[in-house]
Automatic annotation (TrEMBL):
The chain crosses the membrane at residues 12-34, 61-87. This is histidine kinase. It is an enzyme of class 2 (transferase). It comes from the Bacteria. GO terms for cellular component: plasma membrane. The lineage of its organism: Bacteria, Bacillati, Actinomycetota, Actinomycetes, Propionibacteriales. It holds the Pfam family HATPase_c. One of its GO terms (molecular function) is phosphorelay sensor kinase activity. Residues 359-372 have a biased composition (Polar residues). InterPro entries: HAMP_dom, HATPase_C_sf, HATPase_dom, His_kinase_dom, HisK_dim/P_dom, HisK_dim/P_sf, Sig_transdc_His_kin-like_C, TCS_sensor_his_kinase. Its EC number is 2.7.13.3. Residues 90-143 form the HAMP domain. It catalyses: ATP + protein L-histidine = ADP + protein N-phospho-L-histidine.
Length: 372
């Protein structure tokens, strides 16, 4: 730590020295003004007021003894105070220097060396803990930013390449303009728009900026609305969508966000269930929580992939590209973020490849809002 004229340790030491000097001057002045009068009064009460020689000698002895004792006492006290001040300011300077070096490391992008303030006060330890927590949060955010940039670059490659190839074929006359060509361009453009929207939502969720507009909502209405919206697409894909009715529970929730989560769960189930398969939606209520299960008998999930299926852009089979534009790779991450924003959770379960999967959206129900 720099010990220049403006350093905090130097200022504290100078300030404490001035306090000690001021205290010394105050004691000497007060003793000089008050001491003689008090002493003379006591001498007169003792019957020595009419003995000038005795009184003068006693006063001289009083002054001499008083000044010597006060001087020695003040010197000892001042030396002790300054020593304690010096030790304290040096230790404080060392702790502040550790915080300064930690800030420099963080600004340089090094987050793996937490600030240690061994032996410091509880206040400084709380500052160090808060600083280390901030550094860890910055590290997490930076890691997510880098991963997001990499993932986005990868995900943008396919639709951009498709649009580029289609436009080049149109320019070279290899491909004639027509409904199929326009449909391809529109599909890839829509995929880019969905990707941008989904990335915005999942980034906001990961940073704690996912806004909710809660109201008393019927969970049955939300689930039924999603099922109705997706039923035709399931029929077109040859997949049977079953909605098993459960108790109608009212809860405080953001209807649009819960619907968004349900849409992503149904889209994921449809994407991984072949023609002839089944997807079932179940609703239940137990111990203050509403559980919505989306169960399919499709491809299933390998055990090693289960902990990662809700990570954005994660693919259980990396060799399988998303060339059909059916998903952006962040749907489950958004559904999970919506659940957590409602103080709920989203869990995935599967008995293995080829044995289907179950996604359970759990939300806390509101007290006294159960509808019979």
């Amino acid at each position: 730590m720099r010990q220049g004229r403006g350093s905090l340790a130097r200022r504290l030491l100078v300030g404490q020295t001035l306090v000690v000097l001021g205290m010394t001057v105050s004691i000497v002045v007060v003793a000089a003004l008050v001491g003689p009068a008090v002493f003379n009064d006591h001498m007169r009460r003792a019957g020595h007021g009419g003995q000038p020689d005795v009184l003068e000698h006693a006063q001289e002895a009083f002054y001499s003894a008083g000044l010597q004792s006060i001087g020695v006492g003040l010197l000892v006290a001042a030396a002790g105070a300054l020593l304690v001040s010096l030790v304290t300011t040096r230790r404080l300077g060392k702790w502040l220097d550790a915080l300064s070096r930690g800030a420099v490391r963080v600004s340089a992008g090094r987050y793996d060396q937490p600030v240690q303030l061994a032996g410091s006060s509880p206040e400084l330890e709380r500052v160090a803990d808060a600083f280390n927590g901030m550094a860890a949060q910055i590290q997490t955010t930076e890691a997510r930013r880098r991963t997001l940039l990499t993932d986005v670059a990868h995900e943008l490659r396919t639709p951009i390449a498709t649009i580029d190839v289609t436009l080049e074929a149109l320019e070279d006359g290899v491909l004639a303009p027509g409904p199929d060509t326009y449909a391809t361009l529109r599909a890839q453009s829509a995929r880019l728009a969905r990707l941008a929207s989904d990335i915005r939502d999942v980034s906001a969720a990961e940073e704690g900026r996912l806004r909710l507009s809660t109201e008393v909502t019927s969970i049955w209405d939300v689930v039924e609305a999603s099922a109705s919206q997706w039923r035709q697409r399931f029929e077109e894909a040859g997949v049977t969508l079953i909605h098993t009715a459960g108790p109608d529970i009212a809860l405080h929730a953001d209807r649009a966000r819960i619907g968004q989560a349900m849409d992503n769960l149904l889209a994921n189930a449809l994407r991984h269930t072949p023609a002839g398969g089944h997807v079932e939606i179940r609703s239940s209520h137990s111990r203050g929580h509403v559980a919505i299960e989306v169960v399919d008998d499709g491809e299933g999930i390998a055990p090693e992939a289960l902990p990662h299926v809700m990570e954005r852009f994660y693919r259980a089979d990396p060799a399988r590209p998303r060339t059909d534009g059916s998903g952006t790779g962040v749907g489950l991450a958004i559904a999970h973020a919506v659940a957590r924003a409602h103080d709920g959770d989203l869990q995935a379960a599967s008995q293995g490849p080829g044995r289907g999967a179950t996604f359970t959206l759990s939300l806390p129900s509101s007290p006294n809002l159960h509808r019979s």
